[in-house]
Amino acid sequence: MSTAKGPALNPSTGRFRKRHIGLIVYFVFLLLPIYWLIAMSVRPNQEILSGFDLFPRTITFANYVTIFTDPSWYTGYLNSIQYVALNTLISLSVALPAAYAFSRYRFLGDKHMFFWLLTNRMAPPAVFLLPFFQLYSTFGLIDTHIAVALAHCLFNVPLAVWILEGFMSGVPREIDETAYIDGYSFPRFFLTIFLPLIRAGIGVTAFFCFMFSWVELLLARTLTSVDAKPIAATMTRTVSAAGMDWGLLAAAGVLTIVPGALVIWFVRNYIAKGFALGRV
Amino acid sequence: MDKRPYDNKAWLLVLPVFLIVAISAIIPLMTVVNYSVQDVLGPFQRVFVGTEWFEQVLNDDRLHGAFLRQLIFSGCVLLIQIPLGIAVALTMPVKGWQSSLCLVLVALPLLIPWNVVGTIWQLYARPDIGLAGVAVNSLGIPYNYTSSAFDAWLTVLIMDVWHWTPLVILLCYAGLRSIPEAFYQAAKIDGASAWAVFRYIQLPKMRRVLTIAILLRFMDSFMIYTEPFVLTGGGPGNATTFLSQFLAQIAVGQFDLGPAAAFSLIYFLVILLLSWIFYTYITHTDREDAR
């Protein structure tokens, strides 16, 4: 991979400082709300409400302890992680062969199919709220992890196909042909040669599936009530019932950022390399 | 010329995707179509009403207001986020741990659940306990997003900039990384100015990712629901009631299935039309690039 550095990206002139001041200002804007969330999460409620302080005077982890010891809180996290993982798995496993078909073959209605898939990514989830509820009630799937995972496929599968197709088109077709001449069957070629070649693409796709499933709440909340309730929904209900417990709310918020931060950390190199390899 | 072989057996590979999306898209959409032309009087009593709901919804003043607010909002989102995203992507470090750190930090807001984004900004902007709220008020500018329509609107907009500019940055950054070193060297030899490098090398190379960024940002801002719902609940009055809030109000709040379904279809068709325009534009420029 070539490391792109140009005059504009790696300036050694007097403009260097000015540009970087702008960057720093942006990062302050980016991080201040998150700092405030963390600062709130380690304060007792009386301190939050009694006055304004830039830094917490007394640091307490009581809010975190509450979340980790109360099942109604921590099962929310487990539920969210379960359906997000399930969704990423389903999305990837159906999207991989389809993306291969789109990148390697022409077939009847391929362009229309591809566009139709994309329109589902563009569909407002609010439109699907009621029908989804009825559909999953009919099959008795309400309040299960699989229902949320399937509902999130609506926007994640098209996105996965779209991103993977870009990565696959970057792999020369000669590799497929050589493998077939060498006597590889399609499944064996696909699993042992082709998938390792596009693992950066798979990483980026998994990142996006995780991201959009993790952050979505509207559908997740509508399709669950108790057993599969996502953490984000737990936050809205518990808080409004118990008055405004700002510290607890902030602590729960901090904990929803943690899984995301971990995932980014793992795919950070793939994001940088991966985006550029694929067409997205 | 497209050299891919023509083979209808490829459909077998697409079939799983087709089935799973068909279940989660076509069947629900049919239900919506069903509701949009019927009046549900009871569990087994339905009357066909034709286009009545569509006429009712299209003549609804509240819808016109929500639509106008939505258009202004999406326009502002694009005008701020796209240039800001390009600018930050251009200044980000490209090598070493600084680059990894910047990427991770930039991507952070994207992985926060949307209602938590609302919560964060609620905590951050409240005039009594929020850092930003207190800071702005102490500068002598009266600011309270729960009572002033303008403040509420501005807060939602800034929140969206905070939340989604990172997506534009990541896409632009990826586009910039795909530019070969040789381009910059050639520009250096020619003595090109920074502006010329941007205008004739970086911008054309970013065109594709920018199209995707504009497409995604436009669509997603057009469907914004959760963040303003948590932050302002659509108020004060209905200053921050965008299209999705309006839809949720009539569908879940008032349970008017007919008008809600009719409105859903109109909403969906508007988005479909816009994405079709963008899609043909992308594929068209692709073909030109290939030439």
Automatic annotation (TrEMBL), chain A:
GO terms for cellular component: plasma membrane. It comes from the Bacteria. This is ABC transporter permease. The keyword Membrane applies. InterPro entries: BP-dep_ABC_trans_perm, MetI-like, MetI-like_sf. It comes from Skermanella aerolata. The chain crosses the membrane at residues 21-42, 81-102, 114-133, 145-168, 189-215, 246-267. Keywords: Cell membrane, Membrane, Transmembrane, Transmembrane helix, Transport. It is found in: Cell membrane. Residues 77-267 form the ABC transmembrane type-1 domain. The keyword Ribonucleoprotein does not apply. One of its GO terms (biological process) is transmembrane transport. Belongs to the binding-protein-dependent transport system permease family. It is a multi-pass membrane protein.
UniProtKB/TrEMBL annotation, chain B:
Residues 67-278 form the ABC transmembrane type-1 domain. Signal peptide: none annotated. One of its GO terms (biological process) is transmembrane transport. The chain crosses the membrane at residues 12-33, 71-90, 102-124, 152-176, 209-226, 261-282. GO terms for cellular component: plasma membrane. It comes from the Bacteria. Keywords: Membrane, Transmembrane, Transmembrane helix, Transport. PROSITE patterns: ABC_TM1 (PS50928). It is found in: Cell membrane. It is a multi-pass membrane protein. PANTHER family: GLUCOSE IMPORT SYSTEM PERMEASE PROTEIN GLCT (PTHR43759:SF1), TREHALOSE TRANSPORT SYSTEM PERMEASE PROTEIN SUGA (PTHR43759). Belongs to the binding-protein-dependent transport system permease family. This is ABC transporter permease. The lineage of its organism: Bacteria, Pseudomonadati, Pseudomonadota, Alphaproteobacteria, Rhodospirillales.
